[in-house]
Amino acid sequence: MIMSPADAPADTPEPTDAQLNSAAGTFALLASPTRLHLVWLITNGPYDVGTLAKRVGLTIATVSQHLSKLRLAGVITARRSGRRQIYAVEDPHVIALVDQIFEHIAPDGSLAPDPPR
């Protein structure tokens, strides 16, 4: 069904240019399979960089660079625990976004079928 502008919900404001640019930047950041894998791991529990590097099969230096970008963008947080940095996702919106995309994509990469209603 095609909606005309008159049919659009009145209580839903159009996104601002700033919102569109920020959202596009976040999606661009998550467009990397490695960063998306890291965020998926971290949404399921806090990790240190060494453990994350082992899980994704990359060097600590490479994973640290990805984590730095994610942290600067506000997608993940980091806290010190002794000599280690522990990375976490605390934003429920990020958790919901990651959960929803993997509910939408089947393990073979195709679109997952909608659950029966």
Question: What would your notes on this structure say?
Answer:
The chain is mainly α. It has a single domain, classed as Orthogonal Bundle (Arc Repressor Mutant, subunit A), CATH 1.10.10. 50% of the residues lie in helices and 10% in strands. The protein is built from five helices and three strands; from the N terminus they run H-H-E-H-H-E-E-H. It has a three-stranded antiparallel beta sheet. A hairpin with a 2-residue loop joins strand 2 and strand 3. Helix 2 crosses helix 4, helix 2 packs across helix 5 and helix 3 crosses helix 4. The protein is globular, with a radius of gyration of 18 Å. The model has no long low-confidence stretch (mean pLDDT 91).
Question: How would you summarize this macromolecular structure in one to three sentences?
Answer:
By secondary structure, the protein is mainly alpha-helical. It has a single domain, classed as Winged helix-like DNA-binding domain superfamily/Winged helix DNA-binding domain (Arc Repressor Mutant, subunit A), CATH 1.10.10.
List keywords for this structure.
single chain; 117 residues; mainly alpha; Arc Repressor Mutant, subunit A; globular
Named CATH topology = Arc Repressor Mutant, subunit A
Q: Which structural category fits the helices and strands?
A: mainly alpha
Q: Using the coordinates above, name the CATH class.
A: Mainly Alpha
CATH architecture: Orthogonal Bundle
CA radius of gyration is 18 Å
What assembly state would you assign to the polypeptide chains in this entry?
single chain
- In this structure, how is the largest beta sheet organized? 3 strands, antiparallel
Anisotropy-based shape: globular
Helix count equals: 5
> What percent strand?
5-15%
Number of domains: 1
Q: Distance between termini?
A: 20 Å
The percent of residues in helical segments reads: 40-55%
